[in-house]
Design brief:
The complex is a heterotetramer of chains A (about 150), B (about 375), C (about 350) and D (about 170).
Chain A lengths: L8 E12 L1 H12 L3 E5 L5 E2 L16 E4 L2 E10 L12 E8 L6 E5 L12 E6 L12 E6 L5
Antiparallel strand pairs in A: 2-3, 2-4, 5-6, 5-8, 6-7, 8-9
Chain C lengths: L1 H4 L5 E8 L11 H14 L10 E5 L10 H5 L11 E4 L3 H13 L5 E9 L5 H4 L16 H14 L5 H14 L14 H4 L4 E4 L1 E2 L8 E10 H6 L5 E10 L13 H10 L8 E3 L5 H11 L6 E2 L14 H14 L5 E8 L5 E9 L2
Parallel strand pairs in C: 2-3, 2-4, 9-10, 9-11
Antiparallel strand pairs in C: 1-7, 1-8, 4-7, 5-6, 8-12, 11-12
Helix pairs in contact in C: 4-12, 7-11, 10-11
Chain D lengths: L12 E12 L3 H11 L3 E5 L6 E2 L15 E5 L2 E10 L12 E8 L6 E5 L12 E6 L12 E6 L7 H4 L4
Antiparallel strand pairs in D: 2-3, 2-4, 5-6, 5-8, 6-7, 8-9
Classes of the chains: A mainly beta (about 150), B alpha/beta (about 375), C alpha/beta (about 350), D mainly beta (about 170).
Chain lengths: ~150, ~375, ~350, ~170
Amino acid sequence: MADSEVLHAEHRLEYPYSRSTGPVIGAFLTALRDGRFVGATGSDGRVIVPPTEYDPITSDDVGELVEVGPGGVVESWAWVSHPLRKHPLQSPFAWALITLDGANTAMLHAVDAPGPDALATGTRVTARFRPEAERIGAMADVEAFVVEGGAS
Amino acid sequence: MAERCAVIGVGQTHHKAKRDDVSIAGLVREAAKMALADADLTWSDIDAVVIGKAPDMFEGNMMPEIYLAPALGAVGKPMFRVHTAGSVGGSTALVAAHLVSSGIHKRVLTVAYEKQSDSDAMWALSVPQPFAAPLLAGAGGYFAPHIRAYMRRSGAPDYIGRMVAVKDRKNAMRNPYAHLHLADIDMKMVEDSMMLWDPLRYLEACPSSDGAAAMVLAAEDAVSGNYPPAWVHGMAMRSEPTMFAGRDQINPQAGRDCSADVYRQAGVTNPREQFDCAEVYVPFSWYEPMWLENLGFCDLGDGWKLTESGATAFDGDIPWNASGGVLSSNPIGASGMLRFLEVAMQVRGQAGEHQVDGAKLALGQAYGGGSQFFSMWVVGSAKP
Amino acid sequence: MSAAARAVRPVSIASFAQSQNVRKDDERNEVEGLMPVIAEVFGNIGITKDDVDFICSGSTDYLIGGPFSFVMALDAVGVWPPRSESHVEMDGAWALYEAWVLLQEGEIDAALVYSFGRSSLGDLSEILTLQLDPYYEAPMWPDIVSLSALQARALIDSGKATEADFAAVASRSRRDALSNPKSQVANDIAPEVLLQDDYVVAPLRRHTLPPITDGAAAVVLAAGDKATAWSDRPVWITGFDHRIETHSLGARDLTTSPSTAKAAEVAGVAAGKVDVAEIHAPFAHQELILAEALGLDDSVAINPSGGALAANPLMSAGLIRIGEAAERIRSGAADRAVAHATSGPCLQQNLVCVLEGGA
Amino acid sequence: MADETTDQGPVTTLATPIRLDFDFTPGVAQSKFLRGLERGEFHGQRCSVCGKVYVPSRGSCPTDGVPTTEDVLLGNAGTVTTYCVVNVPFAGQSIEIPYICAQILLDGANLSFMGLLQEIPTDQIRMGMRVEAVWVDESDLTPSLASVRYFRPNGEPDADYDTYKEYL
């Protein structure tokens, strides 16, 4: 059989997953919807952001939730000059690990900056929330982080 | 050369159609923390973690050991993920047990789960792919023709399936963790339930559940916990091809071989006599008589007679699925481990209201796919 | 550690086979791709499927976009009469670990391990995000290249490495791949030239990324009499361990690999001179992190096969490292080798296998 | 923690739609089968070791693990080995319930496959019934099982149980 006889077709794997959050993730997402951040206290007193039900190292249950952010420090960053179709921003941006003020772990999010020269490890950034009416209780409620005192 | 291995802790969630009160991590931690508490251990006492579940598409979370490592106390430890279709809960326990019996680890935590309400089981089990046959029959439609073939081959009367459906749901009334608690279940209620895939009625099929199961397995010198250990006397897995000419789907060779292997290891020559109870993967009622024959609890063609006689009922001489079984709770990836876990509970004497009096030796069985994957273990209260 | 004190049963990598690594295997399904590899791994040592007591495979459903892809793949072996068989939704290196564990008990003497996957069917930059936290990370679709770039930036910031170091790794790997007939990307380009590449995601330039690869691999493990009967120079596994780290990138030091270091310690890497190391480092900078964690010095030949930068068939690339390391020993080029496999974003999970040549 | 700013109640669920696109190929052997359907023919493949005929073949003999290479053109008729009557609606279903799903063993094949059975009341179907494929119009033939509209009784006497009991 000629090679061209082999069939091909597009296959789309698609499902609208709906996840129950449980109390801790739910509290964080609720806070996001309210335009603020919370973290959870880990077994050694470190504040984990975003919070999980468990300490990311010891796996013990986390303690009380505490308010953190909205400003923070870039721990590492990567400049995306050609965003992919599902990325949160469609113009050039940075992925960054950001330690929010009051937190001891960094969280992943996008930074909207004019260019790679505007960012460095250690740069202070702050969250730019979507308008209240558009917030649904998801990471996307933070449109992006921006450089503190920056032009954007 | 193999070291002795024992179950020293068990835990399971309350199984429900939708556990909308927890995240995926919250669900598995509920079972794992209960197993640790039962073993009187903490996360740091565990050497390695083995998880199992059915297709990742149920939750849309690829290779979930990556996300779940910190949720299950695995940071800095070996973590492993098993996937062998519906038998996975059983084979996950076996992989964990081999880590102990090989002498590599002292205490291993094993967890199986499914949070299928994040998506939809029917969708995730049969994601339509190009060029595949059009979706003709749905999930039960795969098994219903084999049930019909069993009825023809054995001459079983049609009410046998209904008897199993009633028996297992009555048993579930004794199990606080079971998904289905149908207080009024009786033959008429099953007969009146909707005919889904003739000859299979709604109440003769398993539910779709969220849930998790966990066990702590330990070497002989690491035994701890609130109950006596359940010693592993034998373990085996067998697979055969999914479709081949002359395949016997009613009495698969892989199931026969698997039980022969596990019986040899455990010194079992007469399963009905020697076992005090069994937990066997029966997702559709008719699989009880089929597996009674496949597992050698009776002669070929006589499985339905054993069911009809009441031998497999809670007060029978060889209770099957005293927990209520898969017909009462079916968190797919965990369903096999629940069978293995429930027999451990029985021989440890911790099964509460569904405790089979004086259970000392028991068989746990799981199967998957189109009855081509099998895993089994035998546990006992005495050291092997 | 109990593992260090335990007497390890010698198990040999008796045979290894891999498919030609290609950008896209456009014609064959998983079974058709696997069959020649299985036939070769048995044929190398003149045995059949009836000579192995256990079968274990590694793969993931998400590469093909449908559940139970391993079920169909089993038809490439022909498990009749029924066999003791298992599957991990992990790289084949972990399937090999499961088989090795069973062989430790002494009940069985031989096992077939295989893995397969066509990385070309879907978009890996989307697929692999599904490995991430499903609540906080996956919904933002951060791709694997971007996450690896965060790690590379942290490494540069720490002062441990430069972009030139990344280019040197890439240049050497693909030059070495010229002598590997199974490799996908092989060329001889100086690091200075590579540094003129554009950034894909800064600070990662094109050459620091692995190729997208379709491929499959298989190994036969043997113990006892079979190990010596099937090989004039058995390649013994003398140490084996794997470890995982926490998932949260923001709770890890991305410039180190403590899980690799721990696995190397348990496997006993430092107990002797290492001649060759086959390291599963999909991104160039990751080789530097791993070499340090494994405690390898400049005398070690790293990735003579070209490594994952020359061919990165997902779910097989780790198993291939073990096979390639074993082949160096079997050929006499090395006496003691380290093989490594990784899984998860930014080297979250790592496996280390120590191999030694025997009489 | 206190939540004074919203009357929406706490967030308890998160929608995370997932869509992935793939370039799918069924492989060499299945393509031959599907191309056959496009011509209104059933093509199987024979294993050179055990001689069994698989339709469709996925490229290997499942019991021997070797490529199936010999093409076998099969006829239109076969036997119902077993069946069920589908009474349940489910997502993706395109046929009005109740209807019959039958395992059909084509003459000359050694493996049955599931097919839709029509032109017979659901209470008259029998194990062993002889059936034939009804194809879509020639202009509608595609490389897919959708080219087979359904199977229907072909009027031949039922097959003896012994002739198909090996295939249950």
